[in-house]
Specification:
This protein is 43% helix and 17% strand. The protein has helices at residues 31-45, 76-82, 86-92, 109-115, 143-151, 153-162, 168-173, 186-198, 202-214, 220-233, 238-248, and strands at residues 2-3, 7-12, 15-20, 52-56, 61-64, 98-102, 105-107, 119-123, 127-129, 166-167, 179-181. It is an alpha/beta fold. The protein is globular. The strands form 2 sheets. It has a 7-stranded mixed sheet, with helices on both faces. Strands 5-7-9-10 form a 4-stranded mixed sheet. Strand 1 and strand 2 form a beta hairpin.
């Protein structure tokens, strides 16, 4: 495993692992860290040997918000010029699946980063929320928008306006996380999910991810048009031929990513 000041990286076969490593501040997110995460993800996105990115915190905290010290004395003009949310758009554009391994606090910017991931495996210890209201601001990296799409207006309003935390079970019940696992197995299970996805045909996985994301951005009729176009495009790939032939021959497919 390679290490930097604020993150650790490791490659496990076709899975690239990024672990946020700021334990003294509960993995609080600052702009240098976010830029490094985006750069790493972009590198993995263009690496043909990597099929899935696994993003993790530690057992105590996935990420307990943004680094408030970076913003406490800033003016609105300074914040606009800083344009700190541009880096989040880079993460949004990653084509390969991002699996989140979430344990402990996932708050504020941490919750927003979690919602940028595609499959969220949460420990039963996870505490999830957007408590920015408690310090006189509001979510700014997509928290009000993605949370509302996941939870619905009523619950999103409760979480955003009261600042309360959701348990992992509540978050799963309302569709904010994919699955909840015992605290002893939170990272192991997330890695297992990442490896399962990484074993699928990488072209079809990228297409399926894009199509699911379209569902929250496009009108249904437009989303169906895009879905069909992506579906048809897969019939020009070797992976489609291999996958269907392997099914007929009752064997495990060997996908090449072509």
């Amino acid at each position: 495993m390679t290490t930097d000041k604020h993150f650790l990286t490791e490659v496990d076969g076709p899975v690239a692992i990024i672990k946020i490593n700021r334990p003294k501040v509960l993995n609080a997110l600052n702009l240098p860290l976010m830029e490094d995460i985006a750069e790493l993800m972009e590198q993995y996105d263009s690496d043909d040997t990597i099929n899935v990115v696994l993003l993790s915190g530690n057992e105590r905290a996935w990420a307990a918000g943004a680094d408030i010290g970076d913003m406490a004395t800033a003016s609105s003009d300074e914040m606009r010029k800083r344009n700190q949310f541009a880096v989040w758009e880079r993460i949004k554009k990653i084509r390969k699946p991002i699996v989140a391994a979430v344990s402990g606090f996932a708050l504020g910017g941490g919750c927003e980063l979690m919602m940028h991931c595609d499959i969220i495996v949460a420990s039963e210890t996870a505490k999830i929320g957007q408590p920015e209201i408690n310090i006189g601001v509001m979510p700014g990296a997509g928290g009000t928008q993605r949370l509302t799409r996941a939870l619905g207006k009523a619950l999103a309003m409760d979480v955003v306006l009261s600042g309360r935390f959701l348990t992992a079970e509540e978050a799963c019940k309302h569709g904010l996380v994919s699955r909840v696992v015992p605290k002893e197995h939170w990272f192991e299970e997330a890695l297992n999910v990442a490896k399962i996805v990484a074993a699928k045909g990488p072209i079809s996985v990228r297409a399926a991810k894009a199509s699911v994301l379209n569902a929250s951005e496009l009108h249904l009729s437009e989303g169906l048009v895009e879905e069909r176009a992506l579906f048809y495009s897969l019939f020009d790939t070797n992976d489609q031929a291999e996958g269907m032939t392997a099914f007929i021959e009752k064997r495990k497919p060997t996908f090449s990513g072509t």
